[in-house]
Design a protein that fits this description.
single chain; 4-stranded antiparallel sheet; alpha+beta; elongated; about 500 residues
């Protein structure tokens, strides 16, 4: 008994409505197990790995790579249970006494009411006691169903019919010969003025166009890629099977060089006009980031204040921390002490760590700090958050910041890692700039920008000296934080970075 199961795209975040299929880890015909990672999807916040709720054989990938699907859309079909694609029995089969006691007498047996026998269908098409069931994704527990799949035709038949179709032309006057894979012999056709070619069964082959010209052979994802890149498929020579146009062919055509079939000399470069414009779809992390920044800029009245400070002592303190045993294997940078200074300032001035609740018309003052660290990634700006950073020691904070930013830059941060922040730091100094006017993360009241550290002339005890100098910028929501409070927070952070002993006195 086998059954075709469709795995629908789940909501892996808070209020997720859609996601992009980034990469499939399986292909049709592959055997998969429960909780095996089958696909990477990109949500509005991060790239997430989805495990399979079923065990069986992959029947079909319903959404191609690069496509965006709504939550609840079937994305993969899995043939569950034994058999080779056969449809399940029309009605329920009685369960033997052995199955009732928890012993599987026949892997093909099913029951219609699990509560009657205390047993539910097993993940692998067998019966198992409730306490031995494997956990699956929420909403995808194994259920009985009558879904039937259309039996697949043998590969030889499909290949023969596809080849016959491509050899046929609308101007042929010769009688059409029967296919070698036809189930029953067919009488020879009488010559006619125009023979109609047999329909193909290949998903990748295209029908023959009127006038005897074969239509372009390309799969839907390849056609979409060609449309996005502005490539005319009619001018592309396919290097795939039977002239099928592949993604490499389209990308090569977009670059102005035709891809050559394997084993042949490269085709001469095709003369193409250089595109004057490029259009990049707005989706995934960048789409979410853009919406959040627009909402923040046009909802919270931003005020930004700047403070240039002598950070020489902080740089020296950072150098002294690195060889300590507590920081072994941890990257220690000035950002660590900037983060610690901001945490202490937030404890001294709690309103800087608050939020504006428009619906309730309340200001929410948080007595905990989930510290956001803005990180630039290939997919756009993300802000992973260190949960309960206020309660961490300096070594713990260093490890948490290092692990979280590394995970975010690798595109592996979970939606939980990227939500729940209360105040944020952005390190613009790594880009070689002095400072900027950062936009507040929605749901927060402030964000601190840390500029580059550089040598500059500075007056120390009435004498001119070369010191390590940087510029801090604090943006805050003027509905919550007035100028006096914002200045006090920025001044405190600057004082602690100028003389790290203030951290000991105020912590």
């Amino acid at each position: 008994m086998s059954e075709l199961k469709n795995f629908k795209l789940p909501d892996v975040g808070e209020g997720l409505t859609e996601a992009e299929i980034v990469r499939w880890h399986v292909q049709p015909g592959d055997k998969i197990t429960v909780n095996q990672i089958i696909v990477d999807i990109e949500t509005a916040k991060a790239v997430v790995e989805l495990p399979s709720p079923y065990a069986g054989v992959v029947a079909d990938l319903l959404v191609p790579e690069g496509a965006t699907a709504d939550v609840g859309t079937p994305i993969i079909s899995v043939q569950v249970g034994g058999g080779n694609g056969a449809a399940p029995a029309a009605g329920p089969v009685a369960v033997s006494a052995g199955a009732q006691s928890g012993t599987v007498a026949d892997p093909e047996l099913i029951i219609t009411r699990p509560e009657e026998g205390g047993i539910e269908p097993g993940i692998h098409g067998t019966l198992a006691p409730k306490e031995e069931r494997q956990a699956v994704l929420v909403g995808y527990g194994v259920k009985l169903g009558t879904t039937k799949r259309r039996p697949r035709k043998p590969a030889a038949e499909t290949s023969a019919q596809g080849s016959a179709t491509q050899r046929a032309t609308v101007t042929s006057i010769a009688p059409s010969a029967p296919s070698a894979s036809t189930r029953s012999p067919a009488p020879a056709a009488t010559p006619t003025p125009a023979a109609t070619p047999a329909p193909t069964t290949s998903a990748s082959a295209a029908p023959v166009a009127a006038g005897g010209q074969a239509a372009v052979l390309a799969k839907p994802p390849v056609r979409k890629l060609a449309k996005d890149l502005g490539v005319d498929l009619g001018q592309v020579e396919g290097t795939g099977t039977d002239g099928l146009i592949t993604r490499d062919d389209v990308q090569a055509a977009a670059a102005g060089v035709a891809a050559a079939p394997v084993g042949l000399a490269p085709a001469p470069p095709r003369v193409t006009s250089v595109a004057r414009e490029e259009r990049i779809p707005i989706r995934g992390v960048r789409k979410h980031m853009a919406a959040a920044m627009v909402a923040s800029a046009f909802t919270a009245p931003h005020v930004t204040e700047f403070l240039q400070i002598d950070i020489t002592e902080t740089m020296a303190a950072t150098a002294r921390l690195k060889p300590l045993a507590d920081f072994e294997g941890v990257r220690v940078s000035p950002l660590l002490l900037v983060a610690k200074a901001l945490l202490i300032a937030a404890a001294r001035h709690p309103m800087i760590n608050s939020a504006w609740d428009e619906a309730a018309q309340e200001i929410v003052v948080r007595h905990y700090v989930n510290l956001g660290i803005a990180a630039a990634t290939e997919r756009g700006l993300v802000v992973p958050t260190v949960k309960d950073a206020h309660a961490m020691s300096l070594p713990e904070l260093a490890r948490a910041i290092g692990a979280l930013t590394e995970t975010a830059r690798a595109g592996k941060a979970s939606p939980a890692d990227l939500s729940g922040g209360t105040i944020t730091i952005t390190n613009v100094g790594v880009f070689g700039v002095d400072t900027g006017t950062p936009i507040i993360t929605p749901g927060e009241a402030a964000i601190l920008a840390f500029g580059q550290v550089k040598d500059a002339p500075w007056v120390v005890d009435g004498q001119l000296a070369v010191r390590k100098v940087c510029t801090l910028a604090l943006s805050f929501d003027h509905r919550i934080v007035d100028g006096e409070l914002g200045s006090a927070v920025l001044r405190d952070v600057g004082a602690m970075l100028t003389d790290p002993l203030h951290m000991l006195a105020w912590s």
